[in-house]
Amino acid sequence: MHAARLFVNIAQLVTPTRLGAHRGVEHRQVQVIPDAAIAVQDGHIAWVGARTEWGGTADEVIDLGGRAVVPALTDPHTHAVWAGDRLDDFEARLQGATYEQILARGGGIYHTIHHTAQASLEELVALALPRLKCLIRSGATTIEVKSGYGLTPEAELKMLKAIPQLQVRLHPITLKPTLLIHVPPRTGREAYLHTVCRQLIPEVAQQGLAEAVDVFVEREAFTVQEAEQILGSARQHGLAIKLHADQFHALGGVELGVRLGALSVDHLEASGEAQIRALARSQTIGVILPGVNLHLGLSPAPARALIEAGGAVAIGTDLNPGSSPLFSIQQAMALATRLHRLTPAEALIASTVNAAAAIGLTDRGALIPNARADFLVLQSADWRDLSYTLGANPVHSVWCEGVLIEQV
Ligand code: NIG
Ligand code: FE
Fold first, then answer.
1. pTM of the complete model
2. How far is the CA of 266 from the centre of ligand 2 (A)?
3. Is the CB of 216 under 6 A from ligand 1?
């Protein structure tokens, strides 16, 4: 075999064993190859194995310095485009106000909507770019980005149009755009739903501005019936679907997602046995967001129980100003090991193949032949440092399609 690039001097290469979502018992299995090598051709993995077993030739040999290598991470849930801040909310919450109370009185998400409406497209791009660069330095080469801080089609389209502009600047990183129908306007709810289903979703689908539609099902946001209407329209227009479900109350969002074949249901802090059972029997992935647990003080989603029941779990940062100002997917993994009691292997699977599957991608997240050659070189020779380290970056360098894009 001949390859463009051969990577050698890898103390440990650690990877899920196949692409696509891993569920239940498969969550526990990662392959560890000591003294490994990786051959890359045309941005994809051509060969992986023990260094001594490589019998081919290569144009270039790259020495990775005796470090550990893992697949690059996917962040399947961010709200990286916003203007303004939520520092007053933060202080109010520390003094006893709750996230839901702030939202109910027209603050919180509505505050960010107000500031995002006032920002130009160029300003939104300039604000989001350094946030996404933080996520990349923390190990993400694939990042989902949601809209959702608009209450008019114009405001939502402006947010979505920021994403392809960010994509151009961040190539070869992958950004996946999602239209989020986040909260209803304070008056004119019915008319808004009509506009979303008849005007916004068709236009987004027609212009190719998003690949999925997400709805926030919650007491202060949308009902299950409203979400079904919105997601039905998404389906009709060929878009995938996702939900923010069970963040504060289990209102039926998870069951709706399972019934409609959602790619993922995200949050799950208030999920109980019934929701775990429904999810475990489905193809829908449960996305946990440890930053929200830490920042809002919510009890962690029952990720352990979901894994034991045979479900698939992914981890996201939920990067946003109100519930999760977490700019590192690696820290999200590290938090999931403590707050949700995921093992390092489970956290790696949740942040690679499962996170990619949660946004509809099955071509990345495992270092196996034909997968995208997106990988991380760690500072350490032991891969477990990735989910162990708090407050420093255990990532040494980020490689995308076999090319160095970030030296930390
Ligand atoms: O995923 N809960 C709903 N939406 C976001 C928070 C958005 C915000 O507070 O600005 C979330 O937590
Ligand atoms: Fe979110």
1. 0.98
2. 7
3. yes
- Span 211-243, pLDDT tens digits: 999 999 999 999 999 999 999 999 999 999 999
Residues of the chain with CATH 2.30.40.10: 2-72+363-407
- Which atom number of ligand 1 is nearest to the Cα of residue 318? 1
**Does residue 247 have its Cβ closer than 6 Å to ligand 1?**
yes
Q: Kindly report the three-state secondary structure assignment for every residue of the chain.
A: CEEEEEEEEEEEEEECCCCCCCCHHHHHCCEEEEEEEEEEECCEEEEEEEHHHCCCEEEEEEEEEEEEEEECEEECCECCCCCCCCHHHHHHHHCCCCHHHHHHCCCCHHHHHHHHHHCCHHHHHHHHHHHHHHHHHCCEEEEEEECCCCCCHHHHHHHHHHHHHHHHHHCCCEEEEEEEECCCCCCCHHHHHHHHHHHHHHHHHHHCCCCEEEEEECCCCECHHHHHHHHHHHHHCCCEEEEEECCCCCCCHHHHHHHHCCCEEEECCCCCHHHHHHHHCCCCEEEECHHHHHHHCCCCCCHHHHHHCCCCEEECCCEECCCECCCCHHHHHHHHHHHCCCCHHHHHHHHCHHHHHCCCCCCCCCCCCCCECCEEEECCCCCCHHHHCCCCCCEEEEEECCEEEEEC
**Mutate which of 109, 115, 147 for ligand 1 pocket (most atoms within 8 A of beta carbon):** 109
CATH of domain 74-357: 3.20.20.140
All CATH 3.20.20.140 domain ranges of the chain, comma separated, are 74-357
Cβ 109 under 6 angstroms from ligand 1: yes
Q: Which CATH architecture has domain 2-72+363-407?
A: Roll (2.30)
CA 267–ligand 1 middle distance (angstroms): 10
At 24 the pLDDT is 85
Mean pLDDT of 156-173: 98
> Residue 302's pLDDT is what?
98
